[in-house]
Amino acid sequence: MIELQGILKQYGKNFLENYKLSCDQTKAFRAILNCRTATLGGHADTCDQCGFQRISYNSCRNRNCPKCQTFAKEQWIEKQNESLLNVGYFHVVFTFPDTLNTLVYQNQAVVYNLFFKAMSETLLELGFDEKYLGAKLGITAVLHTWGQNLLYHPHIHCIIPGGGLTADGKWVSSRKKFFMPIKVLSKKFRGKFLFYLKRAKLCFFSDIKYLENPREFDAFISNLYQKDWVIPCIFKGYYDDFRRPGDQLFRIGPDDGNTEAYKQVITFWITPSNPQVDVGATVSFRANAMYEDGSQEDVTSKCIWVSSDPGTVSLSGTSVQTASAVKSGSAVIRAEFIGYSNSTSMVVV
Fold first, then answer.
1. pTM of the model as a whole
2. Are residues 42 and 98 in the same domain?
3. In total, how many domains does the chain have?
């Protein structure tokens, strides 16, 4: 079984000769490399009956180590499950265009703080709106800074209960379908994020040093306002426990033995292509990937699926993505898989 530690042992020296790591990254690199080896010392377990002895090497306990995070993840999920209300929960993901990646990477502490601020204010304000729920929401939020392809991709996973408390302390339940329109959520989040970004104290280096010029920075921000953000808020399901979303929330590195998921994808496609159906009909979409070694895989359940207009075409399912034709019109059906994406359109007549 291929483990992250094995990859670091085999390729780490060459990697360090070509790339510079921050202090935190270097600390994590060394911890993972030395985890459960003689370098960190160990202890002997001896049977008091037969005298059999086993040597166990110490763990690094670094929060980025796949060997050490599993038990902590299970503890965290169990603790969250103990606090669950008897309602369903929604999983929503916030992100922003990759145009911002360099700026964010150079200003991580500042931007991550305003990222959380914009996200929480967006959800709380819309939750309080009588048009959607009229109650105060609860939110569990975790920041991830890498995508499934292991490239820099900051995004926040949120778990939101299907309801909230009114001003007089009464519980209001939401309907099973996510109670905030995705387009409204996206536009409000974009506005708040860019509002705070414009007022933040930022530093600019290397390729984006030109943004030190106020005119250039204003033009950069204006372009982001004009840009049609790639759905920064994605509804990912309705849950009655934290097991499935908890696995994703607590994930802080690639799981050992799961490196095959990061093989190079040659092509990625969706079937069927551009279907046209009547109102009330359904279409079963699948996503497939071909890897560099020629193998193919049905990756439908591993994708993030989005409908550009859920009011026209709504999506559901995991192993097969079922699109339901709600009303006449058209919608773009988009699937994202470890950094790759493809889309098709569905016309409802």
1. 0.66
2. no
3. 3
